[in-house]
TrEMBL record:
Family classification: Belongs to the ROK (NagC/XylR) family.
A Pfam family annotated for this UniProt entry: ROK
SUPFAM superfamilies (alphabetical): Actin-like ATPase domain
Species annotation: Streptomyces evansiae
Protein name (database record): ROK family protein
Membrane-spanning residues: none
Amino acid sequence: MHTDLVAALDIGGTKIAGALIDGRGGILARAQRPTPAKEDGETVMGAVSGVLGELRKASDWDAVRAVGIGSAGPVDASEGTVSPVNVAAWRGFPLVARVREATGDLPVTLVGDGVAIAAAEHWQGAARGHDNALCMVVSTGVGGGLVIGGQVHPGPTGNSGHIGHISVDLDGDLCPCGGRGCVERIASGPNIARRALADGWEPGTDGDATAAGVAAAARAGDRIARASFDRAAQALAASIAATATLVEIDIAVIGGGVAKAGDLLFTPLRAALKEYATLSFVQGLEVVPAQMGTDAGLVGAAAGALRHFGGTGA
């Protein structure tokens, strides 16, 4: 029997994942359900309860001391509520109270998914050993979290570091968030593909019109496809440099589906960063790929719960 375990939930628009995790970040049990994102709020909560129900059947459940949740946002940790953009029925949904009720009144810690991923990368991944870091996810959206002074910095509501909605183009497109010229509107996967298509790129014979299709075309020498990735890299570089100038991070970690494009993204990003991060105290800024993969949200949610009762964590 293990002691001082935590249960972790990673809640997104596609899936709800759960795990039992020990103080070293080891995963001892897993459960997962699809997110019924188009259904009513209670149906979505039913999927969460199903994941927790599976975890409670694990032989180690009696050692669980707390629950950590990393959720698509926005979240409000001060109120214990979530309003994920891609789960329409959850607006101000009292997730913390409902999970506490479903787990026999265990303490529950809530953070946004970007903050959870930052916690995971700082504890176990590419930001390990760095006291000041930005960790980003560039995928369907663009999110992030900050490590400042050796500690994950979730902010009052659990959303601090949400870099996708920094404006990097004052005259840019309107973003669904209500802002204009946001990083997400330029650098997310769907927006990389949208820009390439608008500029005249045509998908190959496989018909793949996603960012992965754009990446494949760019590698094959398509000029328009490469320009769309270059523009995304420039937007990311501008936002990373702004963050570094503001809070003196020394490393930026980038994960998510778009980061899988590898050098196609990282080479122009690093080149653009030299143009934006010019002050002496940010010139040494590193940009590296994330290491934690698909378990990052779970491990980061666990890190928050472990901190709650004095376990290891990040």
